[in-house]
Specification:
two-stranded antiparallel ribbon; 5 helices; about 20% strand; globular
Length: about 140
């Protein structure tokens, strides 16, 4: 195995793993309630494990994403697990299929977000984005 190399942030990464780490940037995260409310008024695409809400903004800024899970999803441990799963599929899928100038919110569903197969959730998000943007797979 290659010796570890330090990057700019002071973290170490192996040379073989560096391309995987650098292939996805950190997305812009929705944090303000007003942004969530504006996105909730946009388009809604239901999926088995989550609800995708999306809206087009009037700018060419990079896409932004937000995550939410109500107490209906479960206790704090379950809600956090659901949000971690949603963050990961968004990180992977939106990096390739998200459009500039769009806001996306992934809303967790009770039982389904935590228990649904990860690859099925990945496919669900891809399908929803293709349907939303009218693109072909």
């Amino acid at each position: 195995m290659a010796p570890p190399k330090a990057n700019v942030a002071g973290q170490t990464a192996y040379a073989a793993d560096a391309s995987a780490v650098l292939s996805y940037g950190k997305p812009d995260i929705l944090k303000l309630r007003a942004d969530f409310l504006r996105t909730a008024k946009g388009k809604r695409l239901p999926c088995p494990a989550f609800l995708l809400q999306a809206r087009a903004r009037d700018d060419d800024a990079p896409w932004r994403v937000g995550f939410t899970c109500s107490k209906k999803v479960g206790n704090a441990v379950i809600r956090n697990r659901a949000k971690r799963r949603l963050r990961e599929i968004a990180r992977v899928v939106l990096a390739h299929h998200g459009l500039a100038g769009w806001d996306y919110v992934l809303v967790g569903r009770p039982d389904a977000t935590v228990s649904r197969d990860f690859y099925a959730m990945h496919a669900d998000l891809e399908h929803a984005l293709h349907k939303l943007h009218g693109t072909q797979k």
